[in-house]
């Protein structure tokens, strides 16, 4: 397989990026190199690989050809210097934070981030003196006023999980860089098909590969993509030591999923826009947040920095939590499950599930209300999804 380094279009990259430089039998698909260790032809060669003088694989925790093919593919899609694959999205987040935060340093983060991202900072990193401030980063002035002399990282999730609020990546990057801090963007909700944060000034991009990039709800994984070699080397070294590495079988499955990323995302976001419009006019729905609706408060920023509005919607159901429970308990096609970005539509209740570990007052300050329902729209026929929502919404008593 060729590496196709001259290919520029994102849809072609998704299919061809991350090939192997030296195919064994002319294979079209990257094989699974299911080997924990790699032999050295000589002691001298082994020493040269360890010292970094010569390239070559050593041990799968440190690197593996199948995993590297996935890393090269994701780095190419995001437009970064290099990618690092990790066991899960959370391993990507914690490894990056471990590499970039220091004792007694400070981080400013989006308040409506994936629940465990917030909890790991507040409960675990705080044990090492790391201070964290969570603000509504869709308001750049709030980022600015939260910056301190020891702020090392600005961490944003855009679109944010689960509120769908959008942060201006370029604006956040300028604030971070004015303070010599690094901007990390969790790009999971958009995927590189719809948003490439490096084009807007980000320094590090995080992906939960479990979601749109894999796309089939059958494997977990994460990726860290760096813009600069220096940060890549630091994060790679922390991952090698802490060990949250991806395994080659996982990498192979995800690489297979990435090949159809553009097709899946285009279909799912087409469904999402139609469903957002359907929900908006529904008498049992109190509000809808989807960046593709013109009334979304950051619709213009989304238009500026995204190639499309994605496949995630959140909405409030009349009769609050009770209404939401009725809806979710009566759906027949849309599955009640956490996670997102798969070909099948999934629905969940963040306040009692993905974001339950955040105290209620912090949750509500971040806009994660009890009535909020999160819908990950899949690739089914729009009419089937609409009819399923319609029959379940009908059961809500006002
Ligand atoms: N980032 C976002 C935005 C997520 O939604 C999730 C999981 O839902 C993660 C990170 C963590 O990814 P993983 O579950 O693969 O560890």
Give your account of this protein's structure:
With 398 residues, this protein is of the alpha/beta class. Helix content is 37%, strand content 15%. The chain has helices spanning 10-16, 43-51, 65-78, 89-100, 115-124, 140-146, 169-178, 229-242, 248-258, 261-280, 299-305, 320-329, 360-365, 382-393, and strands at residues 82-86, 106-110, 131-135, 151-157, 182-186, 204-208, 222-226, 285-289, 312-317, 335-336, 346-348, 372-376. A seven-stranded mixed sheet has the order 1-7-6-5-4-2-3, sandwiched between helices. A five-stranded mixed sheet has the order 8-9-12-11-10. Helix 1 runs antiparallel to helix 3 and helix 4 packs across helix 8. The model has no long low-confidence stretch (mean pLDDT 96). Bound molecules: pyridoxal-5'-phosphate (PLP).
Note the topology:
Layout lengths: L9 H7 L26 H9 L13 H14 L3 E5 L2 H12 L5 E5 L4 H10 L6 E5 L4 H7 L4 E7 L11 H10 L3 E5 L17 E5 L13 E5 L2 H14 L5 H11 L2 H20 L4 E5 L9 H7 L6 E6 L2 H10 L5 E2 L9 E3 L11 H6 L6 E5 L5 H12 L5
Parallel strand pairs: 2-3, 2-4, 4-5, 5-6, 10-11
Antiparallel strand pairs: 1-7, 6-7, 8-9, 9-12, 11-12
Helix pairs in contact: 1-3, 3-9, 4-8
The site of pyridoxal-5'-phosphate has 14 residues, from helix 4.
């Amino acid at each position: 397989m060729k590496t196709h380094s001259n290919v520029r279009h994102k849809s072609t990259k998704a299919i061809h990026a991350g090939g192997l430089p030296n195919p064994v039998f002319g294979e079209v698909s990257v094989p699974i190199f299911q080997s924990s260790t790699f032999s050295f032809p000589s002691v001298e060669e082994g020493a040269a690989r360890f010292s970094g003088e010569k390239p070559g694989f050593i041990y799968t925790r440190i690197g593996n050809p199948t995993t590297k093919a996935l890393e090269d593919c994701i780095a190419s899609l995001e437009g970064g210097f290099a990618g690092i694959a990790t066991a899960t999205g959370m391993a990507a987040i914690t490894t990056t934070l471990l590499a970039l935060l220091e004792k007694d340093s400070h981080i400013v983060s989006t308040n409506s981030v994936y629940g465990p991202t917030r909890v790991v900072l507040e409960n675990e990193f705080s044990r090492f003196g790391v201070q964290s401030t969570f603000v509504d980063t869709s308001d750049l002035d709030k980022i600015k006023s939260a910056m301190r002399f020891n702020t090392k990282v600005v961490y944003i999730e855009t679109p944010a999980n689960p509120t769908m609020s959008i942060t201006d990546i370029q604006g956040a990057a300028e604030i971070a860089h004015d303070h010599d801090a690094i901007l990390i963007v969790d790009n999971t909700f958009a995927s590189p098909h719809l948003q490439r944060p490096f084009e807007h000034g980000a320094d590090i991009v995080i992906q939960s590969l479990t979601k749109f990039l894999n796309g089939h709800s059958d494997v977990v994984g994460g990726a860290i993509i760096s813009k600069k070699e220096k940060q890549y080397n630091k994060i790679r070294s922390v991952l090698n030591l802490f060990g949250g590495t991806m395994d080659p079988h996982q990498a192979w499955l995800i690489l297979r999923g990435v090949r159809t990323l553009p097709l899946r995302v285009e279909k799912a976001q087409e469904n999402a826009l139609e469903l957002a419009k359907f929900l908006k006019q529904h008498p049992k729905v109190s509000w809808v947040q989807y960046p593709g609706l013109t009334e979304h408060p950051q619709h213009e920023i989304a238009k500026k920095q995204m190639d499309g509005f994605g496949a995630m919607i959140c909405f409030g159901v009349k009769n609050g939590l009770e209404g939401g429970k009725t809806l979710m308990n009566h759906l027949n096609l849309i599955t009640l499950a956490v996670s997102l970005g798969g070909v099948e539509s999934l629905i969940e209740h963040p306040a009692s599930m993905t974001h339950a570990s955040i105290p209620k007052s912090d949750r509500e300050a971040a806009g994660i209300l009890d009535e909020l329902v999160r819908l990950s729209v899949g690739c089914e026929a729009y009419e089937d999804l609409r009819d399923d929502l319609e029959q379940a919404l009908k059961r809500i008593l006002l």
